[in-house]
Write a structure and sequence with these properties.
The protein has 16 helices and no strands. The protein is mainly alpha-helical. 22% of the residues are buried.
Length: 279
Amino acid sequence: MVVGLLVLGVSALFGAPDEPSVSLKSWAASAPADFVATAAKELAGTSASAGYGPPYNSAPDASQKIGPVDLQSLSGVRLPVDTAHDFVIGPLESLPSPPAALADWTAATDQQRADWASAYSDALAAAPDNDPAKVEDGSYGPVPALTGALADMARQGSLDGVLQGGGTFYNMDYTRSLLFLGDGGYFPDLAASQHLSGDQWGVMNETGDTPGQSWLWLFSLLYQVEPFKSSPSVDALAVTTMFVLTALLTLLPFIPGLRSIPRKLPVHRLIWKDYYRNR
């Protein structure tokens, strides 16, 4: 009984908070302007996901390299993502009554679609509060109607199901919904408010004020210092560095010189000084 009460008390004081999950529905309801702007970027092919490179697409000059070795491209495009179709057009086509603007989008050329979506993205960025209702008149084709219909679909909660469903009854693949969510400003702002972004050592932190994963300090450190911090290949550099360090640690007993460091620097004798004093 005492142990049980102690566990419950300590859990109440120090347990990690149960934050509500972030969904496309909550995004569209809380930050509709950001949602519409992100959908327009997905149509224009200018979002972070559209230019990420492998494993999602073959965007030129997007992959991270170590010298001449293109590590990111080694795996190839294993999870192909067409941001315009997968995040906007496809979900709208799944509606019982798809918007009529889909026909205009489908009938247009690729160049016309890109021009429409890019012009609408620029107009949204220039509008007061980035509000779609305050956008200046322009040649945006069906893009405002498509992004508005997608926002309505998200607010009703059906977009989450379509992006996560994957055509199967049970699905645990959240790749597309997370990519779409990450392309906007809403999700990164939430992460920053909880001290979870990369420049806040976020991988080591937990939501709220509870302790996080302190053992990931070395991994996170590489993202805070040069030349890693400003490198366009920071992920590849960090992974390669950790691989080399892990290999050195694993093979330490077999590496001449390095395996003798503990004997030449008897730090362990300071830690267990009572044992060695009486030995």
